[in-house]
Design brief:
Largest sheet: none
Radius of gyration: 17 Å
Strand content: under 5%
Shape: elongated
Distance between the termini: 5 Å
Structural class: mainly alpha
Number of helices: 6
Number of strands: 0
Helix content: over 70%
Length: about 100
């Protein structure tokens, strides 16, 4: 687990891949809601945004993309000689995909 609370990034006005994906897969009203929440920061629209993220499958998309990127990173790591450092890099790739909030 990362120890992050759901909505921390939104409260700070940070744009994240789940929000980007939710916006690209949602209707104009939902896109506007997400855009406004990012601009304003805070958590006032968190429940509604969580609904949009869930309905659009944004978290599944992000998990899939993370898996693709982790596999690409691990493929690049194969050129590094075996060592504790290489094992840590591989573990980091796997952790990044398996982690939860």
């Amino acid at each position: 687990q990362t120890g992050k609370n759901v909505g921390d990034d939104l409260a700070q006005g940070k744009v994240t891949l789940p929000l980007i994906q939710a916006m690209s897969a949602s209707n104009e009203a939902d896109r506007r809601l997400i855009r406004d929440a990012i601009k304003q920061g805070g958590r006032s629209a968190l429940q509604e945004i969580e609904r949009i993220v869930k309905e659009t499958g944004a978290l599944d998309y992000v998990k899939q993309r993370a898996g693709v990127e982790a596999e690409a990173a691990k493929a690049e790591i194969t050129a590094i000689p075996n060592s504790n450092y290489k094992e840590c890099l591989i573990n980091l790739c796997e952790f990044a995909v398996a982690r939860s909030h």
